[in-house]
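Escalation from tier 1.

The customer reports that the assembly of four entities below gives different structure tokens on two consecutive runs. Tier 1 could not reproduce it. I'm attaching the input and our single run for tier 2 to review.
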Amino acid sequence: MVRKSASGRIGIADVAIKAGVSHATVSRVMNGNYTVDPEIAARVRAAAAELKYQPNPVGRSLALGKTDTIGIVVPDLANPTFQAILRGLSRAAAQDGYRVLIADSFEVSSEEAILAGEARRRCDGLVLCAPRMSDVELEEIAPSLHPLVLINRSTSAPDVPSLVVDYGQGVQDIAGHLVELGHTRLAFLAGPPRSASNEMRLKGLESFKAAHPEVDVTMLEGGSDFDTGHEAVDAVLASGASGILAFNDLVAMGLMSGLHERGLDVPGDISVTGFDDIPFAKYTTPALTTAAVPITELGEEAWHQLRTLIRKEGNETPGSRYQPRLEVRASTGPAKAPRSTVHG
Amino acid sequence: MVRKSASGRIGIADVAIKAGVSHATVSRVMNGNYTVDPEIAARVRAAAAELKYQPNPVGRSLALGKTDTIGIVVPDLANPTFQAILRGLSRAAAQDGYRVLIADSFEVSSEEAILAGEARRRCDGLVLCAPRMSDVELEEIAPSLHPLVLINRSTSAPDVPSLVVDYGQGVQDIAGHLVELGHTRLAFLAGPPRSASNEMRLKGLESFKAAHPEVDVTMLEGGSDFDTGHEAVDAVLASGASGILAFNDLVAMGLMSGLHERGLDVPGDISVTGFDDIPFAKYTTPALTTAAVPITELGEEAWHQLRTLIRKEGNETPGSRYQPRLEVRASTGPAKAPRSTVHG
DNA sequence: ATCAGCTGAGAAAGCGTTTTCTTGGATCGC
DNA sequence: GCGATCCAAGAAAACGCTTTCTCAGCTGAT
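Tier 1 run:
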């Protein structure tokens, strides 16, 4: 007859009674403490097996002061970029026996601090992924979130490594590629206003404009998903640009789809570029020219940084900077000869 | 001077001391128990605010016997279908104040039971998403996982609602659509061997073949991602089929990309269909004909079912069956006149 | 004026572990 | 052979919270 503790679940006490030993001994056996008589250990193990005893992680967490869980806060779980980061993080953490708790802020920046705080308290560490909150707010809460790893943001708080992708350089590479193809009128389909990565792209474009005064760059408002790109067709055409830098691959795909519906040829009439190199980018027609970011790897690295923080391995935590790699595919091509130019 | 408890973090005891009351009173105030003198309550709240006290969820969980967290086990976090389910689940659960812990089994079915058990013990309930484990194993562990909701699998265990998509019907609808377009030679690019949804598709195709003996259906081995489709081009062409049912949208996209590289026109030369209607399906060129499954909604419903289980609202938990909706787009078209047929 | 009845707040007992502290018994050295 | 040393295992404290139990002090009725 299986004896149950009051709660109905089998606890350490049940095993102790069944094996005729104390709670402490059961705990020792379960944790591989070898200062226990082999014969008794065997008896405990047998009792545990018979009762199908599984230690309660909550009690364990309370006693040990750790949960073996980390949290991640993302602005939008629908975004493939964040999905990829989550995947990399989850896989890497799992290898070290940690689980991941997710919190989706749905792009409402005012929720982020609360979500982050709640998640942090439940976990041993936190990854804040591309938070939309203001710099001052980030500075304010960062210390209370330690151990903390930032993605695509940074803070002056000590011991908060930040992994940032150099979107500014990436966007310049793309623009350079388009100019080499003869495009002189470019347009940038911007991302979400509060996105720091968008800010970095804009800064990159400023540098680019400074270095290439002959090139005309139009800024268009946008977002981060398909529909943004799809709906931007009119604005893009109105801009008169022949080379379009979309905020990311999703926007680029939406745009290409819209252009296709209008009967326009990519890259014959217009060249389109994305950003991120999500898995889909390779399989669009035409295949998308983009700047590849090793996103999954970034998630893994986030775990590694967080791990050293959690383990308090005093090594300085440097953070890292990732350089996007230009991935030229079929969605970009030579600019048409401008209408104003007379051939021959 | 902020007094700290031994652990370094501020606990209920610190607030109690600062406010000059007992632990119990602080707890009462923090939980909105109104049997406490307003003046004292105010003092406690002030102390809590000043110390920035935040209750420790682990202690709370242990005392209350609940974690306000649910777990989900998926076979592959890289699969957009599971991402969408996760998203729906996470959003719906968040609205009720629950968080989601994720566990990715990376398609290794032997890990699932362990992952599920661990996740379940940390959480108040579990969603098992398209588990790859065998039926007998599922039957075996299901009772120990309660409260449990199954997606795309079912079990005889009581009180385990299962949400299943009628892939069998969906695949028949697609096949019917292709036949209406005049295709008489079809091929099915199958999914992962252990996938129950693949099994359901196969069953559906059997029914279809029985009802349409004149149609030839070739079965091809496959998988669930882009590359599967991309690599299947040769096999598809060798089959001689003019209408291809891909396991899902990803496979279809990979296949279309491969066909495009071979210079073949979709749907001019070959019609291709997907399954799921992931967001990308609308934006492929040509836009993908597929069977739409309300996946995110399914994730939400999973939460609702789990919620009634957790709350022990005795209502029977029926589970639901979802009918895919045929979404005809541009990747399917009339079959070419068969070579063997003489016109006129 | 006295006592039952009530109320508000402190004391303490859980929740399920781990870990320190303690103790009885065995071991070892002289 | 006896005290110092050590070891294995039990008792108990700790982790941080909630909640029951308890009791002092008060209200109000007789």
